Amino acid sequence: MIVTVTMNAALDRTLTVPNFQRGQRHRASQGLTLAGGKGINIARALKRLDVPVVATGLAGGRTGTRIVEELTSEAILNDFVRIADESRTSTAVVDETASSYTEINEWGPHVELGELEMLREKLHYLSRGAELVVFAGTLPRGVDESFYAEAIRELGRRGVQTVLDSEGEPLRLGTEAEPYLVSPNQREAEGLVGQEFHDDDDFAMALDAIADLGAPNVLLTQEEGCFALVREERRRVRFHAVAPRVEPVSVVGSGDVLLASFLASRLAGKPPDEALRSAVAAGAAATLEVGAGRFDPREAGRLTGGVEIVELEVVRS
Description:
The chain has 10 helices and 14 strands. With 317 residues, it is an alpha/beta fold. The strands form 2 sheets. The protein has a 10-stranded mixed sheet, with helices on both faces. Strands 3-2-6-7 form a 4-stranded mixed sheet. Helix 4 (147-157) packs parallel to helix 5 (168-176), helix 8 (254-267) packs antiparallel against helix 9 and helix 9 crosses helix 10. The chain is globular and about 50 Å long.
């Protein structure tokens, strides 16, 4: 079983609006409401891959109730801590004619210390039967930037492997806590390393720099694929995986699907290159429909053969 933790859960409302223009009145051709937040997106993808998963985190107010109801309607097992402040709502406008995606996110709730303590107790309980605990997304107001790091260390002391997908200082501190895997996107990784990436050597250097901070495995996601560093028999192996070309409807959440598929494949015992091939194909399939974490596993299977994977050489300084 995998446990996903979403600290800043949201109710995601996506509207499809052809020929969307600022300052004009439009009528949406389609609307979709889902429970959202990176950890929830990962749980949704794991559910589609038939991997046992429980989604937890913080949910507050009427919006929090709706988030839990939406998860339950999708048959995604969940066990959230209810908090006093209102969970956030995110609104997105998709214009398929222009391949554009406009997103407006609320800040989210303020969390009290007692509510955080209840979440820690819940994690202690849920992690007893977990193979992995995945921390994903931003931290809400009132939560210290060291929260992920402290939780990762606590779980590590009890022999529970963890995965982290965040940004900024919570990502840096969490990586130093030595999770099993960190999975930033390119922008988040550039912020962590302190420079922009332009070619394969830059990405290979970044993989090593992030691993040196404390994470033995690194998955650096992009819209067109990923770079990965995997520790195999005390040796670091680096890969670049490129997705087949598709006509995307929405790229939002595709990195969450990629990560979910990679974890599912590794837990199933697949070697790193095969796991990456399945993961990148699933991420590509996720761009073909609206709704973060949604994808068709059959479409992912069809795209698998088009994924290109190369092993990267060690960058010599």
